[in-house]
Amino acid sequence: MLRKASSAQPSVGLSGCGALSHVYIQHPPLRVSIPGSRALFYDDGNKLLLSIISDQVFAWKTVPPVLFDAPTSDSIGEGPVLSIRYSLDAKVIGIQRSNLEIEFRNRYTGEAFIHKCKSESENILGFFWTDCPSCDVIFVKTSGLDLFAYGPDCKALRLVETKRLNVSWYIYTHESRLVLLASGMQCKSFIGFQFSSGGITRLPRFEMAIAKAEANEKPVLAAEDVHIVTMYGRRYCLQVDRIAMLLHLYRFYRDAVVQQGSLPIYSSKIAVSVIDNVLLVHQVDANVVLLYDIFSDSRTPISAPLPLLLRGFTGANTSSSRSNSRDTVHLEISNMSDHEGIIYGDGWTFLIPDLICDAAHGALWRIHLDLEAIAASNSEVLSVLEFLQRRRLEASKAKQLCLAIARTIILERRPIPIVARAIDVLITSFSRSIKMGNTLLGRMVGRETTSTSGIQHVNSYRTRADDSLTRNARHGKSMHESAAASRVDEEPQQSRRTRTGENESLDLTTVLTVNRKSTSLVLDSEENVGPELMKISLGVPLEKSQSNNLHFLGTKECMGAETSSVEVEQSTLQPQVLRPSGTPLKSDVSEQQESQVASPEISPDEMCSFVFAPVEEEMTGDPSYLVAIIVKYFHSAALEKLKVHPNLNVLTIKLLARSERYVELGLFIINKILEPSKEVALQLLESGHHNIQTRKFGMDMLRQLSLHHDYVLLLLQDGYYLGALRYARKNQVNTIQPSLFLKEAFVSSDSQHLAAVLRFFSDFIPGFRNTSDYSTYYRILSEMSSPVAA
Amino acid sequence: MGLASTTTGSEGIQFCIFDLKRGQEEGQELDKILFFFPTDLPFSTQLSVIGLSEGLITFTRIFSPEAACEVIEAERHSHVFYQAEPDIWMVMVVEKNKEAEAIWRIGALQQVLKEVHSLFMMFHGSIRALLEKEPGGGLARSHLYFFVMDYLTDFLSGKKLQLPSFRDCLKERGTVQMLTVGREAAIEVQSLVRVVESACAGNAACSSLVLFQDLLVSTTLSPDDTVNLFAYAILRLTPLALSSGSSSWSYLRKGSPASLITTGFIPGNSVSVTEPTYTSRDTSPGRQGQRYHVPRPLQRDKWSKGKDGFLVLETSGAEVGGLNSSTPTVWLRQTDERMYLCVFQQKNLTIILLIPVSSMINGEQGISMVKRQILENASLKILKVDEKLSRGWGGENAYHVRGYRYLLFDGDRNVSRASPPGKVTTLSKDSLLSLNRLREEVDLEKNRARHDDPSHEKDLEVCIRAKNNAWVIARVTRGKELYMVLEKANETLLYASDAVEKFSNRYCNGAFSLD
């Protein structure tokens, strides 16, 4: 029933399934089937899958990895349920009972009240909770929007604002905080509002394009044809045009909606998912998925159309031992019906961004990208690397793949220009992340990646923790408000605009790669609130039409004892939850370190130890190819002003020395292509065993690095004891035993020199005359000179 | 116009190459002679010069079998010896004449002999190999004749041969002058080098040299080969060398592109006695050249820049047959491999690419493919490098240091740097003479030390206050040498020593800072 997040799970073994696909769903799905279930709802604000059974609502957390415990349940009383949503602090459940009434129940006190429409002429189309500062819940009605603030103590909703509009239907996702209201004959005229913690933003009215089928027939746009998706922090609206067989792409800017091209579709039924900023267009009739990376201007699919794959279905027992252990807990896994394995079954509902709900079987699937398969199926190394570098969800996998690709193309001795461009991709990607890491914006990005890395432990607490997170968010909000206080007094339209900018920038925090070209961004403290909170929330009411038929039955019932257990857990978990979102405010350093681990960008260190070092070990033959690659790497790194890891310098010296290209090595040293360091100097000395010039470079480098002790020792070793003495005197090197100098002088059997060295120490080291060194060498000296005297 | 025919006696320079193994028998002494300059000297004179040299070599070998005599200083002449190959000797006889500024440094003259032989080897292989190929000696003689004469042409100053004299004591022949580049530019250059070298398809081990104007920027050759190719490039390939008539600032080469080779004259070293084939009308090396199709890579004004930026060597004898390739080839000393010499030039940059002949199965066709590859892959990079280097380039006087006239010489790397010639000429004759003298002494001292203990390098420091009150300074430390002249300097030794220290710290990374 519960799946572990495969994002963090090594799925390398699973890729051996062999089936051709680029996206897959992993068996077993999240099971939500409970006998007697009336309907399933998805609460995207809290990422809960809700099932109504008589007067109970059962809630399953959909954020991986879901804990193995049973769903929480709340009593909601009898009556029809058109839609149901938990408040963002999970204290209140909102239940739409009819198109006129919405019931609100406090989960802890069991208190409930029903909010009714005043006029019979207007229908409630739906409602959603918001973290907007001025209101808590928003009703979408045929006559417009009603913004309410919720007061738990006053047990009623307080109307904050009403926006009068004609609404045919609406779509909303919590992920984007965006509600699109359709109006007009063809329902193609739209008005959008964004209710984010930064405030309310009104988007300009815009029209969607629909091709005409015949002269007099005007197709009407349906809610299923429009999808709000978020990719790379940018808000898009996707609109299916069945007549033209096109999927139109609109991008929301803060003050404009711009159509950004169209994608061809090959099926009359289209579903859309977004996984890790990759757009999946399910051509349901054709049973295939097309993948697009909207980041680049290219509107061509990433890879060939292939079906969605169900993984691990045939043998739940053959999969990893971990899943076996899970089997014992949830026995129903093995009882999977055959029908459940049908891809694109009739009961499938696609939940943005990446879920599929199979209402017929009570199963919830999460769609995954198979990065390995995508990488393997595409021969364009550069585009694959670029694609992988933009992945965040499975960052470590993407990184491993990038490293493997880099190693492979070098080992295969691909033409240097190709490898060069591949290196460019990796380096610019890393450099961009570093540059952004230096700005506030970058920290956001850094943290974003943290949250993905920590998705396993952070998100597991998400639903219960949302309360605290929200509180945290409110804290941030208040900070924001004070920061933006000056703006409050501005003319409303103006301030709204400013806020749109904020929202836009806020959105950016939820993403990895940021379109820095777009609009000038206003950052505020609000963004310091846990980004995943905003990222992974969305809301599509499940089976709207079905639930619309249900009748309303108002009841008030006490909350069960279960709620208290929820509360207990909440309090225990709170600190853990607070930390991940709270730390960025305090310690950015650890933050960034963490982000480096979890992002696919490859640092110079990793480039050295995971690409060049292993390649060097594996590569045979003439090292000049590898040298050429390393030079190219130096080149790219220099362009991006990145420092090269000293070990790579050492490696380069080894390679050049191995092929006896000492002249080139000399050029590399003189021109400081290999930056001076002690490691480099020592390697030069070692490689200089066969080449005196290289050894001299090493010595010169020691001297220039002021490593006086080592330098003097080397001079001594080479027998230049007088030079060593002069140097030691000049640079006050006191760490070398006089006996070493004396011994060298003695070995040279030059009595004058020995006398000079002896005299030197007698003059400059107090008490030297009393040492055994002095007496020993004084005796030797007199023995050496006695034959001359005699 | 032939200078050889007119200047014999007055010039007082004789240059001969002979083989001790040849002409051992009475009456066949002429067979020893492989080359003699001036060419029109009577055989008797030629033989007496060679006889004297041979006698001295034989005599000194008794005491020093490894290194026989290096120089004879007679009252009016100096005989400079250089054993180019086993038993093949080159001897240069120069007249001493104070008035005519004929004051020589033996080391510098030896370097000339060494250079011409190294270049000869690079293009034609060893003299011994040529002699073995054609025991009559005609092949070796004609090759030597054209090559050495073309080489000496560069020393023509007006109608006189102007060999390196004391005025050139702040120069070191047989070394490479390098451009100093920053790290970024250096990486740019290296990355260009890799692209260029990867142009030869497959796993062929190409090598390359990159020059900026007359300065070396990068090499992937061994030190010896680098020196040779660099010397050749300076003589014939760089933009300055191509625009004939203008004299290079880094090399002594004045005057007109006159040639020492005349079409009409009859060479002296006729081998008719021993080689019947030459008794016929065909005794002129000029015609021998045609007979043997001697390529003349040192002939002036034969290189020109093609439309595609690659330099083309006009080959005169090609149509006769033999070589069907117009791309010249050179022997690399390090690998003993024959390489195609492919030269690309754009603005200030000269890129010399050496492609193994063995790797080019379809010869000229393959080369044009490589050229196309370079144009396709590297032209942008070449422009970029040129731009980058030009921006950082300080012009002819970039390496001038105010107040100093210096020569910095790294014997291990065969790299030297000196004050620009224009600045050296401002020195008085006295200073130059003193430095010349000092260099002679240092040369001697170095040689002695090398004989005594080859592993241990001598440290040396000499400061001389010359007659004209200039400081003349030499410092030798661990294979590096620094010579300088400080005119108009303070009179104390401390000042001179400080000046050296400052120079060393500033320009030599403290290599000469002793105490």
Summarize this, please?
Chain A: Residues 463-505, 563-598 are annotated as: Disordered. The complex is a heterodimer of chains A (790) and B (515). Chain A is of the alpha+beta class and 790 residues long.
Explain what you see.
- The complex is a heterodimer of chains A (790) and B (515).
- By secondary structure, chain A is of the alpha+beta class.
- Chain A is built from 25 helices and 29 strands.
- In chain A, strands 1, 2, 26, 27, 28 and 29 form a 6-stranded mixed sheet that branches.
- In chain A, helix 3 packs antiparallel against helix 4.
- Chain B has 3 domains: 13-168, Beta-Lactamase (2-Layer Sandwich); 183-247 and 299-392, Dynein light chain 2a, cytoplasmic (Beta-Lactamase); 405-507, 2-Layer Sandwich (Beta-Lactamase).
- Helices cover 36% and strands 20% of the residues of chain B.
- Chain B has helices at 3-6, 8-11, 43-63, 106-124, 127-133, 138-153, 183-197, 223-237, 239-242, 285-292, 363-392, 421-424, 429-452, 493-507; strands at 13-19, 33-37, 71-73, 77-85, 88-95, 156-157, 160-161, 207-212, 215-219, 303-305, 311-313, 329-332, 337-346, 349-356, 405-410, 415-418, 460-465, 471-477, 480-486.
- A 5-stranded antiparallel sheet of chain B has the order 2-1-5-4-3, with helices on both faces.
- Residues 1-10, 245-257, 263-289 and 317-324 of chain B have low confidence and may be disordered.
- The A-B interface holds A 415-417, 420, 622, 624, 627-628, 631-632, 634-635, 638, 661-664, 666-668, 670-673, 675, 692-693, 696, 700, 703-704, 719-720, 723, 726, 729-730 and B 178, 181-188, 190-191, 193-195, 197-198, 203, 205, 218-223, 226, 377, 412-413, 456, 459, 478-479, 509-511, 514-515.
